[in-house]
Amino acid sequence: MTTTHGTPDEPGRRTATGTEPRQDGGQDGGRHRTPPRTAFTEAELAYLREQRLGRLATVDRGGRPQNNPVGFFLRDDGGVDIGGWQMGASRKWRNIAGNPHVSLVVDDIASVTPWKVRGVEIRGVAEQVEGPHAYASYLSEQLIRIRPYKIFGWGLED
């Protein structure tokens, strides 16, 4: 019997695409057949430029996850900046001081009939950046800057 839940080590475990995971013990748990991408595709860039809101997942010092809606800005160097009001006083700011590994998901429902979802997940290392910036004046001078190490996109093809 094929399961869709459980751990990747279970016999018959299938990935979201319905293919069997790799058995080579790669860092990604064997789920991805191509190497991770660290640069956005043109389709991902076009999609992200249309969006305003994403969800930033961080982990606190105790290992507990936190996920918050955030505004984001694409950088020319391939990074992503996260801005907010009083960012320096936020839990996400404190969380990345202890664990800089984050995930930003930007997604939406493109169509209900037929059902079509699309989005981009950006996994990366975050750093705290302080000082003046060229973004909106209502944002605090503290930004979270993400340097991607894995980028996944889905549903972006026409």
From TrEMBL:
Residues 41-138 form the Pyridoxamine 5'-phosphate oxidase N-terminal domain. Keywords: Oxidoreductase. Residues 21-31 have a biased composition (Basic and acidic residues). Gene3D superfamilies: Electron Transport, Fmn-binding Protein, Chain A. One of its GO terms (cellular component) is cytosol. InterPro entries: F420H2_bilvrd_red/Heme_oxyg, MSMEG_5819/OxyR, Pyridox_Oxase_N, Split_barrel_FMN-bd. NCBIfam families: PPOX_MSMEG_5819 (TIGR04023). This is Pyridoxamine 5'-phosphate oxidase family protein. The lineage of its organism: Bacteria, Bacillati, Actinomycetota, Actinomycetes, Kitasatosporales.
